[in-house]
TrEMBL record, chain A:
Assembly and oligomerization: Heterodimer with subunits of 125 kDa and 50 kDa. The 125 kDa subunit contains the polymerase active site and most likely the active site for the 3'-5' exonuclease activity.
Role played: This polymerase possesses two enzymatic activities: DNA synthesis (polymerase) and an exonucleolytic activity that degrades single-stranded DNA in the 3'- to 5'-direction.
SUPFAM superfamilies listed in its UniProt record: DNA/RNA polymerases, Ribonuclease H-like
GO MF annotations in UniProt: 3'-5'-DNA exonuclease activity; 4 iron, 4 sulfur cluster binding; DNA binding; DNA-directed DNA polymerase activity; nucleotide binding; zinc ion binding
Swiss-Prot/TrEMBL cofactor(s): [4Fe-4S] cluster
Name of the protein described by the UniProt record: DNA polymerase
GO CC annotation terms, alphabetical: delta DNA polymerase complex
Family, similarity comment: Belongs to the DNA polymerase type-B family.
Top class in the EC scheme: transferase
Lineage: Eukaryota, Viridiplantae, Streptophyta, Embryophyta, Tracheophyta
Keyword match Metal-binding: yes
Entry-linked Gene3D superfamilies: DNA polymerase family B, C-terminal domain (1.10.132.60), DNA Polymerase, chain B, domain 1 (3.30.342.10), Helix hairpin bin (1.10.287.690), Palm domain of DNA polymerase (3.90.1600.10), Ribonuclease H-like superfamily/Ribonuclease H (3.30.420.10)
Stored InterPro entries: DNA-dir_DNA_pol_B (IPR006172), DNA-dir_DNA_pol_B_CS (IPR017964), DNA-dir_DNA_pol_B_exonuc (IPR006133), DNA-dir_DNA_pol_B_multi_dom (IPR006134), DNA/RNA_pol_sf (IPR043502), DNA_pol_B_thumb (IPR042087), DNA_pol_palm_dom_sf (IPR023211), DNA_pol_type-B (IPR050240)
DNA-directed DNA polymerase family B exonuclease domain segment(s): 234-468
TrEMBL record, chain B:
Domain DNA polymerase delta subunit OB-fold intervals: 37-164
Highest taxon listed in the record's lineage: Eukaryota
Class of enzymatic activity (EC top level): transferase
Function: The function of the small subunit is not yet clear.
Organism whose genome encodes this protein: Eutrema salsugineum
CDD domains in the cross-refs: MPP_PolD2_C
Molecular function terms, GO-annotated: DNA binding; DNA-directed DNA polymerase activity
Any single GO BP term: DNA strand elongation involved in DNA replication
PANTHER family: DNA POLYMERASE DELTA SUBUNIT 2 (PTHR10416:SF0)
Domain DNA polymerase alpha/delta/epsilon subunit B per the UniProt entry, residue ranges: 185-394
GO cellular component terms given for this protein: delta DNA polymerase complex
Keywords from the UniProt entry: DNA replication, DNA-directed DNA polymerase, Nucleotidyltransferase, Nucleus, Transferase
Assembly and oligomerization: Heterodimer with subunits of 125 kDa and 50 kDa.
Name of the protein in its database record: DNA polymerase delta small subunit
Amino acid sequence: MNRAGNSKKRPPPSNTPPAGKHRATGNPTPSPPVGTLEDEFVDEDVFMDEGDEESLILRDMEEREAVSARSSTWARPPLSPAYLSNSQNIIFQQLEIDYVIRESHKELLPGSSGQAAVIRIFGVTREGHSVCCYVHGFEPYFYIACPPGMGPDDISHFHQILEGRMRESNKNASVPKFVRHIEMVQKRSIMYYQQQKSQTFLKITVALPTMVASCRGILDRGIHIDGLGMKSFQTYESNIVFALRFMVDRDIVGGNWIEVPTGKYKKDARTLSYCQLEFHCLYSDLISHAAEGEYSKMAPFRVLSFDIECAGRKGHFPEAKHDPVIQIANLVTLQGEDQPFVRNVMTLKSCAPIVGVDVMSFETEREVLLAWRDFIRDVDPDIIIGYNICKFDLPYLIERAATLGIDEFPLLGRVKNSRVRVRDSTFSSRQQGTRESKETTIEGRFQFDLFQAILRDYKLSSYSLNSVSAHFLSEQKEDVHHSIITDLQNGNAETRRRLAVYCLKDAYLPQRLLDKLMYIYNYVEMARVTGVPISFLLARGQSIKVLSQLLRKSKQKNLVLPNAKQSGSEQGTYEGATVLEAKTGFYEKPIATLDFASLYPSIMMAYNLCYCTLVTPEDVRKLNLSPEQINKTPSGETFVKQSLQKGILPEILEELIAARKRAKADLKEAKDPLEKAVLDGRQLALKISANSVYGFTGATIGQLPCLEISSSVTSYGRQMIEQTKKFVEDKFTTLGGYEYNAEVIYGDTDSVMVQFGVSDVEAAMNLGREAAEYISGTFIKFDKMDTKGIETVRRDNCLLVKNLVTESLHKILIDRDVPGAAEYVKNTISDLLMNRIDLSLLVITKGLTKTGDDYEVKSAHGELAERMRKRDAATAPNVGDRVPYVIIKAAKGAKAYERSEDPIYVLQNNIPIDPNYYLENQISKPLLRIFEPVLKNASKELLHGSHTRSISITTPSNSGIMKFAKKQLSCVGCKVPISNGTLCQRCKGREAELYCKNVSQVSDLEEVFGRLWTQCQECQGSLHQDVLCTSRDCPIFYRRMKAQKDMAVAKQQLDRWSF
Amino acid sequence: MESMEIDSDKVQQRKQSNYSYLDERFEIQKEMYRGQQYSQIYFARLHLMRTLLYSFAPTWKPHLPVCKVLGLEEGKECIIVGTLFKHMKLKPCVLDEYSKERSVTPLVKPHNFMHPDDNLILEDESGRVKLGGSALSPAIYVTGVVVALHGKETSAGEFFVEDVLEAGLPPQIERPLDLQEDKYVLLLSGLCIGSTSSNPLQFQLLVDHITGHLGDDEEIGLASQIVHVVIAGNSVEFPRKLFTGQNLASKDQSTLYEPIKELDIMLNQIAAGVSVDIMPGLNDPANFALPQQPLNRCLFPGSAPYNTFRSCTNPHSFDVDNIRFLGTSGQNIDDLEKYSEAESKLDFVERTLRWRHLAPTAPNTLGCYPFTDRDPFLIETCPHVYFVGNQDKYDNRLLKGSEGQLVRLICIPKFCETGIAVAVNLRNLECHTISFSTQIS
């Protein structure tokens, strides 16, 4: 994904680019405030290369008629005469905003010369025309506080000194002037409550965005000024990326509509991009439309979803250095339509036709790659989506083209002559561990990798495309292992067609996910609400969103934000949220949950907590504030009340909450499903944004941390929970005239659970409502009891635990059938011990974040991955994969990590699983937690009852001793060895019974066999072809394998009766 | 075949007939589970049916070219032949067991999974195409039927169907015309011995009737005309639940074994007088997948020694006096009822004959052995009598084919619920019921 501020840039030819900085991902909201990693935002100047490489491409295009013949059906609608004659206002929805360095525009800015930063906006008009808008005249700047004693006359001198220092540190920049101007402005710092309205600041405008940082460095270190001596300066707003600076100043929010009136824009004779409408304008001529009414709609963006297949060598994961790209499947959909208008697949070597799909076959890989490039150029997608495209598909294509020496391939961007660049970056967060990642920059096209988005937004047990589609689309996808792909490719046109169908499905699913999860709507709305470019949302954390809102608000209030590094707050930790000790027990009477609607935002608003209302301890003494004017928070900080100074954060929050209310009201009114999608995305974005404000103030390495605020918030929160408990328990008593004494049984961050003692739900709700009214000043709403947060959602438990817990809870809570639940548990445990449990229920999955050697402590899945690598490197899991395993029986005293095994291997070799491990390490704790309050002697009853007496263990077929064992015919009834026939003499009389038993086993297996295999046929979407799928994420994969194996054994057994 | 002594002085001779057994193709002998999948049975089915349908094409639509799914061109009219696949929204899916949300109430009535959004897809080994147009009703067809379609591909990539050709009734062996006397084959099903609805008295009456121990001379005369008896499935109630792996308690053993013993005793009596075929059904101690293999002879120590006793497969096919019988214990029709619609059960029966396939839904929704080189359920020869066991009520219909084929379609009711057995007259294919209902009205 793009690191927007840091991307789409090309280093000046002579310079080496700065190494990609370590990056953190955003945290889920509300983010844990302490120790949050946040990235540093830096601008990086990219110099426009205006040389001419086009001839190369054009020559090449003529040869590629297969693609150009189709381009008429792919191309964007032609421009109307009004557009061509420049007699129409250009209105477009922007998707990306960045900047480039180029010579300043002579016509628009006659006065200036040299290099300048030019803002570049990509977007789409309502008619579907692509737009590239160059905005001139906006210059990077920041503030410093004007040192006391410096007057307007001293500025030019100061300017000279600064210019001199800048020249020293930027030797090879070709700008006539580094510091463009310095002017005096009246502003106020956002930090601390101040009585005077404003003070003097110096606004320093520099030539290029990167110079902000270098100038800040100079001022940080201090410069010598005559008369004042050596002086270092606190800078303000010097850490804001240029694009965001521009957007804040021009009131542009991410994904909104921008209008440039006719006459105000100029089209250059020579265009720099492939966009249909490319023009230049002055920044002051842009009109930014708020996302309301007509302008809340979405332009018809072109969304390309693609997937590639590579033919790997046996035993290796495909590598671009060696393995060819054999197929590329593409689907292009117009935003808002439900069917793609282009469906095609490009294949290496012939491929049989596919209904409804344009199959293009080529003889060489070079042709495939170039066809794809031409396709991208012609179809001109605004958004490129796929599954894991950022880490795999795109870098692979680029690297492969480089290996093959196809220089003209990586011209995929919208900007002429600009090559796609790939660079490595390390992606590191507490949440996901360290991952190697790649960044591919395609100028003007927004990449949206569904894998990254889902990884970030959802907690799932597996992130393979298959399990993600199963989860969100309730659809299993056929999974062809990459080791089979080469065989299919080396077959004939039919087998390659098979592969193409698979490849197309992989391209189609990301599009379905995008639609289903409403990603476009949600992200555009989030960008609109928070005001950042859309590309920031995936690549950046939460804090940039809050910063953007803070900047916008500060600008209205004439406030400036100090640079984070120098913020005066003490770095440290503070006490977090409170959790009331839960009173364990089984509550048969209904429990009312008092849920403080958005507690933290409410506190910040109620107590006017903000940077600009915080009073420093000295000021508390100095300013002589009366107690009515201030609030002292439970954590000991002082904030002034609204009457003196309204906080900016509360104001932002109020607006967000009011906007959410409005969006929800509109949502109710809305009829059109698209409009609904927009509004729903908006209200969600508003909710998340409101919740992330608190986290922003607590992020110690963030943009503007202020622990005084965050610790005050949590201290109020704690107080609120405790007060509520007290209120409820004091008021709802038998003494107070109520039927029962109420009891608070649990409370956490923002909710309190109360047992009022009444036995029907309606009465409990009424009492709850009464309590809510009683606890004034806070918003309380009601919710139903939920089983969230219990073992059912823990990812590293096996499915059996999840099923057991869910079913038991259901039986106990909903059916109110405790004995039934216990019986169910006992049966399941008995099944486990008798080896009758479906293996897939026992599979434990863990993510492999490092290779085996890197783990300090040996882990079950790490060890297994190593062992599997030794068996077959091709099918072994790689770093980043989730490793499925089961725990098997092994020698006494073997460590748990030695007992992990690949489920397939277990099935193939009849390796016995270790039921005791599952009983003791997986099942027992969660079960006892549920049953202890409701069942006497739960442990004894459930885990050690008579049902645990009989056990059955399979005989492994690969263990040492079994290789020497000889199979001896034995009686089906009692296993006594016999020489021939089916039964021993003693069992002859039980013939019918034993036969019935045998036949019923076969019968059950046959039923399962049929259902499983026909389901797999259904998934793969073909009746006449064998199922190839090897998706280990599919819940029935192991079962299907087992059914096939068991069936063969059972049939053989049954055949012994035919005498 | 055999004569018997009757109490009266007058000895009536049971009529004779020639029986030949035609179940070889339903038998699974050496075939093994070796990891084969279901694609092969579909392939075999498509291959045979396509050859047949192709041969009809020139007379059906002489001017139209025949295409494969892959060869379709937009707007070009043609004939395609392939296997239908019905995409069904409500079709239960084994994956549902794993779904996260538990639904409190089942969403559909358990007996039918139809939904207005169901749609048909035609598939051959080259690919599949979605079918449009109103010529082909998704309510009638099911997955697995092979048909020829006339139509053209639309711009949306669908195949717009204008006309449908089914294989129609297969050719029939000539019915012997020299049958002068009435001879009956008695069909019954669903004895359900051991279930609560089974009534031992009813069954005893039936046995006594067949063996000529009941009624006056006239009745005995009728009984003597019964030349063959077929028991079409579900003879005992077989409690599968008892077999969850644990060793059986002795009490369970008897509940399990008693019905089989009782059945053996009854069969013993019948077999002593007339030839009898027993077919396995869904509830019998037999395997699950079609074709169900014969009930093991070890279950019938009493009757098995008789050469008049035959344990047969389901489906079952045989000739009596050159009259061809074909029938099942009902699973094929019950499954059709779940996945398609018709006004009566006989319509389903008729459809399978017109599709020339006994169980099109196998293997998709009906359990079936994964055959590798053949599809035993194809109906190559039209039977004279086509019966289906274990239906809710008795029904029959005489079907006339375009080439003069005459087929009697029969739904045999469950005996335990109705007390009805069905007698088919070999001479004219007429049939009537014999009721042993002991309900005193």
